Amino acid sequence: ISVSLLLTACSHNPKNSEKSVLATNQMKRICWSSDGKGRLHVGRNSYLFSYESLLAKEKKRWSLGLDIPVHGEEILTLDYPQIAAGKYRVKGELYRRLKRELSGGSAKGRSLSNFIRHLSLMIEASSNGQLPVGFKVESSSEKQFRLSARTSSNQWIRLQFSDIGPYGYRKQLFVLREKDFRGQIAEPLKLYFFLSECSSSSTASMK
Is the pTM of this model over 0.85? Predict the structure, then answer.
């Protein structure tokens, strides 16, 4: 009987409930339709950019357009109507750049696929104010929110949101991390976004 009571008490731990409510509220503060500036690290290369992003929630489509100096505008379009079944479609010049520069054969190709699949799960869940399946909350406070999800035995994705503004988090960081056979951690893909504005309106360049 005492064991049963203990389990019941743990399942109704008010601290766990408070953390869950806080995390759910924080998911609602993530903006997927925005513009601003950012930085991309992929493979051995690094780029500064200005950007626009647009979430079409009903279509389950997220578009990201980067304006990279010298290279011009590059777009990634992500459709995830069946992401619960692990299915998604991604296309665009930016996607091709990520594939090309995240070199390393089929293993790196799977890394990018895992990154995009988990990002899709995150977009869908947060746009509905929910925590994505497979993610765990690493830290949660009024100022910062960090989640991660393991994509393989030696690889995981980390998403971090910070700097609360009137429309939500103004800083977003998406990282693909992996551990090699020596136990050293590398970050082959990192995307930083510094939001200037959050908006649900579309733009002419996002089609």
Answer: no
